[in-house]
Write a structure and sequence with these properties.
- This protein is an all-alpha fold.
- The chain folds into two domains: 41 residues; 73 residues.
- Helices cover 60% and strands 0% of the residues.
- It has six helices and no strands.
- Helix 1 crosses helix 2, helix 3 packs across helix 4 and helix 4 runs antiparallel to helix 6.
- The chain is flat.
- The N and C termini lie far apart (82 Å).
């Protein structure tokens, strides 16, 4: 294998460099994805009480709400989303973190209801076929 790497480095250094860079990026983002996936699938990290250090994105992931819903509840724009923390948002709105958390929870309930209304109704189950005459009990 080392011989093959030397060959590719000698014959195609740019292609090998691009390949190695792509491999490093793949591993980096793959590990990051798995880390966040496992973190937010732990029940201890769902629907957490709001803390001043949290970002709107963190709150959205914890409460499983889309970005638009969180930004609407917190009254912020797309440009502010990464630079501001929940404590600053609550202070700007003139409310406590508990009040902001209540608004987020209410938005989650409304979002779930909206999702239920948008889903088509499930088709009814077909009736069970009648039992054969040999299995029936009676006169």
């Amino acid at each position: 294998m080392l011989k093959a790497l030397r060959y590719f480095w000698k014959e195609q250094p740019i292609a090998l460099s691009v390949f190695v860079l792509a491999l490093v990026l793949l591993v980096f983002f793959g590990v990051r994805f798995v880390d966040r996936f496992l973190y937010f699938h732990d029940p201890a990290h769902r629907n957490q009480a709001l803390e001043p250090w949290m970002t709107p994105r963190y709150v959205g992931m914890s409460y499983e709400l889309p970005r638009e819903v969180i930004f609407d509840v917190m009254g912020i724009g797309d440009t502010e989303g990464r630079r501001v923390h929940v404590g600053e948002i609550a202070a700007r709105m003139g409310i406590s973190l508990n009040e902001l958390e209540a608004r987020v929870r209410k938005a989650k309930v409304e979002f779930i209801e909206q999702q239920k209304q948008q889903q088509p109704p499930k088709p009814p189950k077909p009736p069970k076929p009648p039992k054969p005459a040999a299995e029936r009990k009676g006169p």
